[in-house]
Design goal:
- This protein is α+β, with helices and mostly antiparallel strands.
- It folds into 2 domains: 3-46 and 150-216 and 321-375, FAD/NAD(P)-binding domain; 50-147 and 218-317, D-Amino Acid Oxidase, subunit A, domain 2 (D-Amino Acid Oxidase, Chain A, domain 2).
- It is 24% helix and 30% strand.
- The chain has helices at residues 14-25, 63-78, 99-110, 120-126, 149-162, 286-299, 348-361, and strands spanning 3-10, 30-33, 50-52, 85-87, 90-95, 116-119, 136-141, 145-147, 166-168, 173-178, 184-188, 192-200, 218-227, 242-247, 250-255, 263-267, 273-274, 307-317, 324-328, 331-338.
- The strands form 3 sheets. Strands 5, 6, 7, 13, 14, 15, 16, 17 and 18 form a 9-stranded mixed β-sheet that branches. Strands 1, 2, 9, 10, 11, 12, 19 and 20 form an 8-stranded mixed β-sheet that branches.
- The chain is globular and about 65 Å long.
- It starts with a strand and ends in a 15-residue tail after the last helix.
- 52% of the residues are buried.
């Protein structure tokens, strides 16, 4: 006999773990299915730290979602035995006339967020780890910081378990199909399950389960570096805010030292490599290292000591860089959370709330109009 649930969630990473937790908290009998371990290092929700920031150059419309995400992360942390969100402040920097700086400032002004505008000299005086060129400016927002992604997943899964959810790791979803009664049947490499509702939060694998995402939610290889700081005290969390930086070489982002040795950073869309998530170069190369090291030596020279670590992960990019959060037009019992385009993890707590809204109510009060699946 096929097991029957109120809801099934495909993928128990950053977004899927939050979805399972929120669904279970509302009394749903929910099954989470994960092809790897919980948590794991094969997708987009690993690497010790993920940026959290309220100043948002990608669009001020994100700020209300970030405020709710902030509330939900703090609520989740109350029930967990480890800290999830560390406040360091956030920096958005670049040439004074760069859109990154101005859009970050606009998002703060529109939503009454506290912020300061700093010259490169003022930034370096306050935070000596930064060594930006003359003529650069930075928006400093004090509420930013970083999340610990693996622990965030563990905390959501623990909450889901306490609420009665079932989560099966090491079980790969093969396919799903609608059933005659308006539900879904999900087949794995182990068994088959049925449910009234389905949430697809499969990260880089999402397009394999949603035809409408083919060519829309596109996996990309990303590489992160950890370098030993030459002046360690300048890269501690109380002296080194998380940051986004636009330079001629591209847009980069980074973190203070936390949990593992090294000052961590990466380049958005590292080498612009579209990949098959099951068949790509997972081991970082010397070319990856050179690209990142040259950047650090130019803009964070006190952080550019010996390499401590390199790691790959995956972005899943949409054409416009915005998320997909919607139900399928032809199958309203299916909710999709996908295409987070390299800036999604900070939203995971509120994405869980939104997917639970869509799955159980068919709608949400959160402002997600720009994330419709049919906009493409």
């Amino acid at each position: 006999m096929t097991d029957r649930y109120d809801a099934i969630v495909v993928g128990v990473g950053g977004m899927g773990s939050a979805a399972v937790a929120h669904l279970a908290d509302r009394g749903a009998d929910v099954l989470g299915l994960e092809r790897y371990d919980v948590p794991h290092g094969y997708g987009s929700s690993h690497g010790s730290t993920r940026i959290f920031r309220l100043a948002y150059y990608e669009g001020s419309a994100y700020v209300p979602l970030l405020r709710r995400a902030d509330e939900l992360w703090r609520d989740l942390e109350v029930d967990h035995d480890r800290k999830l969100l560390y406040r360091t402040g956030s920096i958005d920097a670049g040439p004074a006339d760069d859109p990154l700086v101005e859009r970050s400032r606009e998002s703060c002004a529109e939503h009454d967020l506290e912020y300061e505008r700093l010259s490169s000299a003022e930034l370096s005086e306050r935070y000596p780890g930064y060594d930006l060129p003359e003529g650069y400016e930075a928006i400093y927002q004090p509420d930013g910081g970083f999340l610990v992604p693996e622990q965030c997943i563990v905390a959501h899964v623990d909450r889901a378990h306490r609420a009665g959810a079932t989560i099966r790791a090491r079980e790969r979803v093969v396919d799903w199909r609608p059933t005659a009664d308006g539900g879904v049947r999900v087949e794995t490499d182990y068994d088959a399950y049925e449910a009234d509702r389905l949430v697809i939060a499969a990260g880089a694998w999402a397009a394999r389960f949603v035809d409408a995402l083919e060519g829309i939610a596109v996996p990309e290889r990303q590489v992160l570096a950890w370098l030993q700081p030459r002046v360690p005290e300048h890269f501690e969390p109380d002296r080194f805010p998380v940051w986004n930086l636009q330079v001629p070489e591209g847009r980069y982002y980074g973190f203070p030292v936390h949990d593992v040795p090294g000052f961590k950073f990466g380049r958005y869309h590292h080498r612009e490599e579209t990949v098959d998530p099951d068949a790509f170069e997972r081991e970082p190369t010397q070319a990856d290292e050179r690209l990142l090291r040259e950047f650090a030596e130019g803009y964070f020279p006190e952080g550019a000591g010996p390499t401590m670590g390199l790691q790959t992960c995956l972005f899943t990019n949409t054409p416009d860089g915005h998320f997909v959060l919607d139900t399928l037009p032809d199958h309203p019992q299916v909710t999709v959370a996908a295409g987070f385009s390299g800036h999604g993890f900070k939203f995971a707590s509120v994405i869980g709330e939104i997917t639970a809204d869509l799955a159980l109510e068919g709608e949400t009060t959160h402002p997600i109009e720009r994330f419709s699946i049919d906009r493409f």
